[in-house]
Amino acid sequence: MPAPHTDGWACDPGWYNLDGREADGCEAHADFVPGTVLTSGTPVRANVVPLSARDAFPVRVHGSAWDLCWGALEVTLTAPARTAEAVTLWRGSTVLARAVSVDGAPATATVDKPSCFGADPEQLQARVTVVAASGDASARDFTLTRNAGW
Q1: Which domains are delineated in the chain?
Q2: Least trusted range by pLDDT, from 25-29, 61-65, 134-138
Q3: Please, which domain of life does this record's source organism belong to (predicted)?
């Protein structure tokens, strides 16, 4: 009888062996859904599997010229226990902010409104990566939330 979620030699498609023990099979399945947009008021829950994965979420920010210099986009990551995971906010190939959540403690990456005049619409991306994990801990879901922005 092959180990769980294997054909006896390799992991079944979409399954990963995070603890490195062949006897217990492949214990983790990625539940990230590509294209999931991070919106205010709707938390995203997913795992980072395999450990080298980057879960990426589009973040659209629309502001108002009336807000002048006020406002910031805040994206908060809460990593599962026994992990350290980072959320990084990108504009194209430029890193705007980064925060690391360790062992269930929330961490917030913040980007201020780019200018004092105009609506400043932005198309950003939030990426979640594993910094450190114990065993198969990254197979548990993180939570990612955001405010409305500027």
Answers
A1: 1-30 (no CATH), 31-146 (2.60.120.380)
A2: 61-65
A3: Bacteria
| Residues 66, 37 contacting (CB under 8 angstroms) | no
Structure tokens at 49: 């599997």
| DSSP for residue 103 | T
Q: Which amino acid is at 49?
A: V
Phi and psi at 4, nearest 5°, equal: -55, 135
Q: How far apart are CA 115 and CA 123, in angstroms?
A: 15
- Supply φ then ψ for residue 17, to 5 degrees: -95, 95
- Cα distances from 58 to residues 23, 48, 99, 142, in angstroms, run 38, 17, 17, 17
Confidence of residue 119 (pLDDT cuts 50, 70, 90): low
Q: How far apart are alpha carbons 59 and 128 in whole angstroms? A: 13
Residue 19 confidence (pLDDT): 81
pLDDT in tens, 50-108: 888 899 999 999 866 566 667 889 999 999 999 999 999 999 999 999 999 999 999 99
